[in-house]
Design a protein that fits this description.
Layout (H helix, E strand, L loop, with lengths): L3 E12 L2 E12 L3 E5 L6 H8 L7 E6 L2 E2 L5 H7 L1 E4 L11 H13 L9 H17 L15 H14 L4 E5 L7 H14 L4 E5 L3 H7 L2 E6 L2 E6 L1 H4 L3 H8 L11
Helix pairs in contact: 3-4, 3-5, 4-5, 5-6
């Protein structure tokens, strides 16, 4: 099996004359944490929407495990194991933490939203749900109503519900947005932990996060790839510093 899990070839998206994503060739290595960064309006979210099939590319190809998925629907690529965690916390606020993870497990089993299924049938999912909560450090919150969780814990829950879908490739959209330092550190460590045996592609503004856990960074500017490589290399690239920071010297240190 190739070590490239996800590849785009000349992926382009134009909206009425405006090209949001322009000829992007992306290669994500299996088992890596790959970050997409760039200034606002660089095309990062549009890229994610193309990869998860919420948008169709104007031209180009998207391959997952060597298979062309360019024209597949969101549900089809989710079944392949490409699972996206949304920028805005996508959990059910009035279910318990455990119930939220159980819904994710039901989706994977194809029994989504069958809330009328007997408790005995659902109980078999509890052990797996508790395992996932332990993996993200939420085992002590299982019976808490989700709306009562602090923000950073909600993001951890969202990662647990994403894990419930058994992703081969996790797409994380701004996982630390709006967090204080303590939550950022916790979620950064969590992403690193859950990346074991999985591949993660993430859009992230926080350069401290990106520099500490990403193996490869792709920098977008005006929808095109400006640079790619490890943080140490990309952060010293003059074109990146000028585009991202509006400066032509120094490093991309701690930029948000």
């Amino acid at each position: 099996m190739s070590d490239i899990i996800l590849e785009t070839r000349h992926m382009t998206k134009a909206f009425k004359g405006f090209t949001a994503v322009n000829d992007v060739n992306l290669r994500v290595r299996r088992g890596s944490i790959h970050a997409l960064i760039g200034p606002n309006g660089a095309g990062k979210t549009t890229c994610f929407n193309l990869l998860t099939k919420f948008l169709e590319p104007t031209r180009g190809e998207i391959l997952f495990n060597g298979q062309d998925i360019t024209r597949e629907k969101p549900a089809q690529i989710a079944r392949r194991g490409v699972i996206r965690s949304f920028q805005i916390s996508a959990v059910f606020p009035h279910l318990t933490v455990l119930e939220n993870v159980r819904v994710g497990l039901q989706r994977k089993l194809g029994t989504a939203y069958h809330f009328w299924r007997s408790e005995s049938q659902l109980r078999q999912l509890h052990d797996k749900a508790r395992e996932l909560l332990a993996e993200v450090g939420l085992e002590g919150f299982a019976d808490e109503t989700t709306v009562n969780l602090p923000y950073g814990r909600k993001r951890a829950l969202e990662i647990a519900t994403t894990l419930a879908m058994d992703p081969e490739l996790m797409l994380l959209d701004e996982p630390t947005q709006g967090m204080g330092h303590e939550d950022v550190d916790r979620v950064t460590q969590l992403i690193q932990k859950v990346s074991a045996g999985r591949t993660i592609l993430m859009v992230e503004h926080n350069m401290n996060v990106v520099s500490s856990i990403a193996h490869t960074i792709t920098v977008l500017q005006r929808g095109a790839v400006l640079a790619e490589g490890p943080y140490a290399e990309v952060s010293r690239n003059p074109a990146v510093m000028e585009a991202y920071m509006g400066q032509s010297d120094g490093e991309l240190q701690g930029a948000h």
